[in-house]
Design brief:
Blueprint: H1 2-16, H2 19-42, H3 44-52, H4 55-94, H5 106-117, H6 125-153
Length: about 160
């Protein structure tokens, strides 16, 4: 019975936090993009081309590697924006003020991310969706911060 009671104590914490799912999703996308340059660097053919190959081919490999690393960084930035949106709402509700403002809340973020996932992580749609997620998530977080500031300061 003790085991069931301790499991019941842990489960509500996991159910209340969808951020774990966001972290897994965004970090998985970031790992997908970050693995391309790592795999390229472990290939003897690619390293030989980078050292001795024609300049055009070297430039192509380096551009692809930098693009993948950039996309991985955008995925991590989108994750930070998603966390910031949730954090600002939680802080406001902790102060007793309801905070359901902002353009890009959880359902909108999921629609954009799942819509891009229909095309696949390797498509050109996913990086643009991640950039939109990052920009609009931070915009929503700043909207919430502005709302919080106006609500907390009140009339002077």
């Amino acid at each position: 019975m003790k085991g069931a009671a301790s499991a019941a104590v842990l489960r509500p914490e996991l159910r209340q936090s969808p951020l774990l799912g966001y972290a897994a999703l965004f970090l998985g996308i970031a790992a997908f993009y970050a693995r391309v340059p790592l795999v390229m660097m472990t290939s003897e053919d690619v390293t030989l081309v980078l050292q001795l190959g024609p300049p055009e081919l070297r430039e192509q490999f380096l551009t692809q590697a930098m693009g993948c690393l950039f996309n991985a960084g955008v995925a991590v930035t989108a994750l930070a924006g998603a966390f910031l949106v949730s954090y600002t709402r939680a802080r406001m509700e902790g102060l007793g003020i309801e905070c359901k403002v902002g353009w890009f809340e959880r359902p909108e973020r999921l629609v954009v991310l799942l819509g891009a996932a229909l095309f696949g992580a390797g498509s050109m749609v996913m990086p643009w969706a991640l950039m939109a997620l990052a920009v609009l998530s931070f915009f929503t977080a700043f909207q919430r911060m502005s709302y919080a500031r106006s609500r907390l300061q009140g009339p002077a």
